């Protein structure tokens, strides 16, 4: 049974997404329970896969029984299994949260929304699980296409942002595909494990260098790494809140996973580090990403737009962890993939809940939200502290490893950038917390709201929104406390052995 | 030099087409032109993939054996085209059609909202309405 999980994790959401229109035909309301029920399956499968990998080591699933260099193989090791659990867990949480916000924001488009939602999850899971370079392109496009459509149904500027994303995203995907093509010319193989065996003899071939360049640029576009992030802020900000809370944490993290997979599995670390100076370039770009994202975030008054710019900086974090190319740094990068996905999901879910309840995303209108929505704001505060890197929240630990990695590599400027970014995050998030908790009530607002003098009624987010928010906030603390355990049991095996 | 260009003309054409597409995607103001540029870009890639599967003097890879699945002659690989890049392109064509479809649908949304498909005009409208 356990090896069938690898196929089920893709097949179940894919088939179910096609069934959503059938189910939604008669009763629109059935879509939501259906999607939530379906998304439990990938979570169970991914936990089963992780369990198998932890007990018996890496394994592979042959689709249709075709042997690897010819057939498509789902190759599962510690890194995949770990990212699969993150993706499936977060997509389930976002699906649970989506009920009310979709009813409010997209009341007429519930059915297409959930269809595309499941397709997007299928794409993301597929990117992570596959061991075939071309298959990865197909899943990348499944995820991206559903992303484009989901973004386009958002607010005022959404279609323009989606169109820009389509153009730039297609360039990224095509560059990736060209990279695959060049590798195929040189090796005659599309299987990642097979490529990893053949490539070392060809490392000085120009074809391989060009392929590597195409891969790097293509994935950097998809992941929104500075300076190729220009599509990202508008697209993620104008998307409906249920959509942005799924794609903002996951799309960028999955792209970071692909980067790690290509640079350390398909190409050996020795190629990526010694033959091409790619990590020096990526590392410095990440430093710019961190500062640029932080500074742009400081300039925003809209909390969602602020978070999107923070996300640009967070992509920089992970890429710095990859770029230092040592064991500690890469551990930090993989840990940060998980931590940042959880933190970003929590923050975006909170923003979705606030938008649903108050109808505003302007930070200065958040006064007294702590009394109106105490649990939501508590979750926001916990996650904000984690973003600033305060222990025992999880953000501290990944940053700790990342900074240790940069120091070990002797890149002091990168370490300084990471530390500065924590300070910028502190300013960013304390600004919001100050508005919500400490600012006195505006008299006009109290009067308009028809509330009794000085007293604010509690108006908490609905139950379906509150549960995922609280779970994610608890996750921020628990993942921090157990991060040592996670590293010793999973991540240390996910880092390539040659380090 | 000329021989070098002519002997690899398929790659040159692919590079030139790709650059035309890239220029249209980045440089053009009209959104439809951007979309056409994207299509040229994708076609260039399909051309690249198709041409790497081709061999001079080779034929389609269908084995003409006697009986059911028993091929008695020795198969000479050089006589047959490499079908794999071509098969990959079937998938890539489907992807590019889907992308074009989504992009066109988005353009319809944009046109309904702003009544124009010129990027600078849309930016101006958005600026004037204060969004």
Descriptive report:
- The complex is a heterodimer of chains A (499) and B (131).
- Chain A has helices spanning 5-26, 31-56, 78-105, 110-129, 133-152, 158-187, 192-198, 206-223, 232-238, 241-266, 269-275, 278-298, 303-323, 327-358, 369-372, 374-388, 394-408, 412-438, 443-448, 463-481, 483-494; strands spanning 59-62, 73-76.
- Chain A is mainly alpha-helical and 499 residues long.
- Chain A has a domain at 309-499.
- In chain A, strands 1-2 form a two-stranded antiparallel ribbon.
- Chain A is globular, with a radius of gyration of 22 Å.
- Chain B has 131 residues and is an all-alpha fold.
- Chain B has one domain (2-55, 78-128): Helix Hairpins.
- Chain B is elongated.
- The mean pLDDT of chain B is 86.
- Classes of the chains: A mainly alpha (499), B mainly alpha (131).
- Chain A binds chain B through residues 134, 137-138, 141, 145, 148-149, 152, 156-157, 159-160, 162-163, 166-167, 170-171, 173-174, 177-178, 181, 184-185, and chain B through 22, 25, 31, 34-35, 38, 41-42, 45, 48-49, 52, 84-85, 88, 91-92, 95, 98-99, 102-103, 105-107, 109-110, 113, 122, 126, 131.
The topology string of helices and strands of chain A comes to HHEEHHHHHHHHHHHHHHHHHHH
Cα end-to-end separation of chain B:
55 Å
The proportion of residues in beta strands of chain A is: under 5%
Task: Just give the CATH class of chain B.
Answer: Mainly Alpha
Which keywords apply here?
heterodimer, A: 499 residues, mainly alpha, 21 helices, B: 131 residues, Helix Hairpins, 68% helix, elongated
List the topology elements:
The complex is a heterodimer of chains A (499) and B (131).
Chain A: H1 5-26, H2 31-56, E1 59-62, E2 73-76, H3 78-105, H4 110-129, H5 133-152, H6 158-187, H7 192-198, H8 206-223, H9 232-238, H10 241-266, H11 269-275, H12 278-298, H13 303-323, H14 327-358, H15 369-372, H16 374-388, H17 394-408, H18 412-438, H19 443-448, H20 463-481, H21 483-494
Antiparallel strand pairs in A: 1-2
Helix pairs in contact in A: 1-2, 1-4, 2-3, 2-4, 3-4, 3-10, 3-14, 3-20, 3-21, 4-5, 4-10, 5-6, 5-10, 6-8, 6-9, 8-10, 9-13, 10-13, 10-14, 12-13, 12-18, 13-14, 13-17, 13-18, 14-16, 14-17, 14-20, 16-18, 16-20, 17-18, 17-20
Chain B: H1 2-7, H2 9-27, H3 31-52, H4 83-114, H5 119-128
Helix pairs in contact in B: 2-3, 3-4
């Amino acid at each position: 049974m356990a090896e069938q999980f690898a196929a089920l994790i893709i097949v179940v959401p894919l088939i179910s997404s096609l069934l959503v229109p059938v189910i939604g035909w008669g009763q629109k309301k059935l879509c939501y329970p259906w999607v939530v029920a379906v998304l439990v399956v990938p979570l169970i499968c991914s936990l089963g896969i992780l369990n198998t990998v932890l007990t018996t080591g890496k394994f592979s699933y042959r689709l249709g029984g075709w042997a690897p260099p010819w057939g498509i193989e789902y190759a599962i090791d510690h890194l995949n299994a770990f990212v699969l659990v993150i993706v499936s867990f977060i997509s389930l949480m976002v699906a649970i949260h989506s009920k009310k916000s979709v009813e409010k924001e997209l009341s007429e488009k519930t059915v297409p929304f959930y269809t595309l939602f499941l397709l997007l999850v299928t794409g993301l899971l597929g990117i992570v699980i596959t061991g075939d370079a071309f298959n990865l392109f197909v899943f990348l496009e499944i995820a991206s296409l559903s992303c484009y459509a989901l973004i386009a149904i958002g607010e005022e500027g959404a279609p323009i942002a989606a169109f820009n994303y389509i153009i730039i995203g297609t360039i990224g995907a095509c560059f990736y595909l060209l990279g695959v093509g060049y590798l195929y010319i040189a090796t005659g193989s599309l299987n990642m494990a097979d490529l990893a065996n053949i490539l070392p003899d060809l490392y000085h071939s120009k074809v391989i260098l060009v392929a590597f360049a195409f891969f790097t640029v293509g994935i950097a576009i998809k992941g929104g790494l500075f300076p190729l992030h220009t599509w990202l802020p508008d697209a993620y900000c104008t998307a409906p809140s249920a959509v942005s809370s799924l794609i903002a944490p996951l799309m960028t993290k999955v792209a970071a996973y692909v980067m790690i997979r290509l640079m350390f599995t398909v190409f050996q670390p020795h190629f990526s580090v010694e033959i091409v100076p790619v990590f020096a370039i990526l590392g410095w770009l990440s430093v710019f990403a961190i500062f640029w994202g932080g500074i742009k975030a400081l300039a925003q008054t809209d909390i969602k737009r602020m978070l999107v710019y923070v996300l640009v900086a967070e992509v920089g974090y992970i890429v710095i962890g990859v770029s230092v190319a040592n064991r500690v740094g890469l551990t930090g990068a993989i840990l940060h993939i998980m931590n940042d996905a959880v933190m970003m999901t929590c923050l975006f879910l909170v923003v979705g809940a606030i938008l649903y309840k108050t109808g505003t995303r302007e930070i200065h209108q958040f006064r007294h939200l702590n009394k109106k929505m105490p649990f939501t704001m508590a979750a926001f505060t916990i996650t904000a502290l984690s973003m600033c890197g305060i222990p025992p929240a999880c953000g501290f630990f990944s940053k700790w490893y990342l900074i240790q990695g940069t120091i070990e590599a002797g890149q002091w400027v990168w370490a300084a950038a990471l530390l500065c970014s924590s300070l910028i995050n502190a300013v960013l998030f304390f600004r919001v917390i100050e508005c919500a908790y400490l600012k006195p009530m505006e008299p006009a607002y109290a009067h308009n709201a028809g509330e009794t003098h000085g007293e604010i009624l509690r108006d908490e987010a609905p139950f379906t929104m509150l549960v995922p928010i609280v779970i994610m906030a608890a996750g921020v603390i628990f993942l921090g406390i157990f991060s040592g355990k996670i590293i010793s049991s999973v991540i240390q095996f996910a880092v390539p052995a040659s380090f | 030099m000329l021989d070098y260009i002519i002997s690899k003309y398929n790659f040159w054409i692919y590079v030139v087409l790709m650059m035309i597409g890239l220029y249209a995607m980045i440089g053009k103001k009209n959104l439809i032109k951007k979309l056409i540029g994207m299509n040229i870009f994708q076609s260039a890639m399909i051309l690249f993939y198709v041409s790497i599967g081709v061999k001079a003097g080779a034929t389609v890879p269908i084995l003409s054996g006697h009986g059911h699945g028993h091929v008695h002659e020795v198969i000479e690989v050089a006589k047959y085209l490499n079908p794999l890049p071509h098969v990959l392109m079937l998938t890539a064509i489907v992807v590019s059609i889907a992308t074009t479809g989504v992009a066109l649908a988005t353009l319809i949304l944009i046109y309904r909202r702003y009544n124009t498909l010129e990027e600078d005009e849309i930016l101006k409208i958005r600026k004037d309405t204060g969004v």
